[in-house]
Amino acid sequence: MKDLAGRTAFVTGAASGIGLGIATALSQAGVKVMLCDIEEEALAKAISGLKLTNADVDGVRADVSLKAELEVAADATVARYGRVHILVNNAGVGGGAATANGPMRVGIGFSA
User: Fold this and answer.
1) Residue 36, domain member (yes or no)
2) Residue at 3 is within a domain
């Protein structure tokens, strides 16, 4: 893998689990990381934990299923870091589907 130091990443679903693991690994590789998550309290905790390691991280709360919120998150990221080099679409978004027995919830996860 080529050197990622100095690059910028935007990671959705970054407050916990795989997203936080990816954000942590990227920050340890010298990547500036904008963490994005719908859970504001978990996001703040993840950011403060990573900052303790001197990682160059920041965060933005957004619901990735809402285009307007993603646009605000993108603008905040560009304002803070400039160009984004790495995009990790980790957040899961639930969708609905009708069945003969009524509504069915389906989880759709994206990762890169």
Assistant:
1) yes
2) no
Q: Which domain holds residue 99?
A: 8-109
Q: pTM of the entire structure?
A: 0.81
- Write the single-letter amino acid at 16: S
Q: Which two tokens stand for residue 29?
A: 């590789």
Residue 89 tokens read as 């679409």
- The separation between CA 36 and the C-alpha centre of its own chain, rounded to angstroms, equals 4
Q: What is the pLDDT of residues 14-67, one digit of tens each?
A: 999 999 999 999 999 999 999 999 999 999 999 999 999 999 999 999 999 999
CATH number of the domain bearing residue 13? 3.40.50.720
Number of domains in the chain: 1
> In the numeric block, which tokens belong to residue 21?
């693991």
Residues above pLDDT 70, as percent of the chain: 82
Residue in 58, 16, 52, 8 with CA at minimum distance from that of residue 35:
58
Residues in contact with 108: Cβ distance below 8 Å, sequence separation at least 6, in sequence order: 92, 93, 94, 95
